[in-house]
Amino acid sequence: MNALYRDQPWRPPRPEALEIPGPAGPLEAIVEDPAAQGGGEPPALAVVCHPHPLYQGTMRNKVVHTVARAANRLGAPAVRFNFRGVGTSAGAWDEGRGETEDALAVIEWARRRWAGLPLWLAGFSFGSYVALRAAPHARPAALVTVAPPVQRFPLADAAALQLPWLVVQGEADELVDWREVRAWSEARRPPPELVLLPDTSHFFHGRLGELQDAVQGFFGRCVDGMEE
Q1: Contact 27, 20 (CB under 8 A)
Q2: Which residues contact 145 (CB under 8 A, 6 or more apart)?
Q3: C-alpha–C-alpha distance, residues 178 and 169, integer Å
Q4: Considering only Cβ atoms within 10 Å of each terminal Cβ, which end of the chain, N or C, has fewer?
């Protein structure tokens, strides 16, 4: 899969805007599928959850876009979507409960569109919380949580996940204490793979390339593991 990595010539897939049926009404979404423009057989499908809806979090967040792009570069279609009440998505903020239902509805839709492909589930900040809530039901093949808000949401009781799992955290995050994330990660059984990026803020200003490398490398190892 190295030929697909970001130091190689590559053309991003054309975004497809659509609506996905959700439990509170239609959910605004963007699909980017390398196969739609001549890419090879996809190794998986990716669904990426965005940060907090009450603090301008949307599917167009640059961290969410970067995580989706990491999947695209390995040939995987990626689905970004707006939680209920965000953009043109129907419904209203539901403190994570309804947002988890939204994520599961999007996953169900994606699994119908790309039947038989493994699921890569990811989230950024609040989206990490939603991804962790959804994971026991969605049973992804791999999980990525970027800047999981361990001090703001009840993540201490996150279920033990027997799957490849990556946590990426900035050490200069002004909203999430990297030491708390490290302690939380080390307390999981089994612990996730943890990547700490020095001098990196919550929104990964100037560090998006390093974030993409970390996520893409992790997904790439998942692909290599499936091929063995």
Answers
A1: yes
A2: 122, 123, 128, 131, 132, 165, 166, 167, 168, 192
A3: 6
A4: C
| Predicted confidence (pLDDT) per residue in 166-200, tens digit | 999 999 999 999 999 999 999 998 999 999 999 99
In 3D space, the residue among 192, 189, 202 whose CA is nearest the CA of residue 166 turns out to be: 192
State the amino acid at position 9 in one-letter form.
P
Give CA–CA dist 199/186, Å, rounded: 21
Element (H, E) at 16: strand 15-20
Instruction: Report the distance separating Cα 69 and Cα 77, nearest Å.
Output: 9
Which residues are CB-contacts of 91 (< 8 A; sequence separation ≥ 6)? Answer: 22, 23, 24, 25, 84, 85, 98, 102
Pairwise CA distance, residues 64 & 210, whole Å: 14
- How far apart (Å, rounded) are the C-alpha atoms in residues 125 and 169? 10
DSSP state of 139: -
The CA distance from 47 to 89, in Å, is 16
| Token pair 């969605």: residue | 138
Which token pair is 141?
A: 């093949």
The 8 Å CB, 24+ separation contacts for 137-144 are 137/104, 138/103, 138/104, 138/107, 141/44, 141/222, 141/226, 142/44, 142/118, 142/166, 142/218, 142/219, 142/222, 143/192, 144/67, 144/120, 144/168, 144/215, 144/218, 144/219
Give the residue from 58, 52, 50 showing the smallest Cα distance to 175. 52
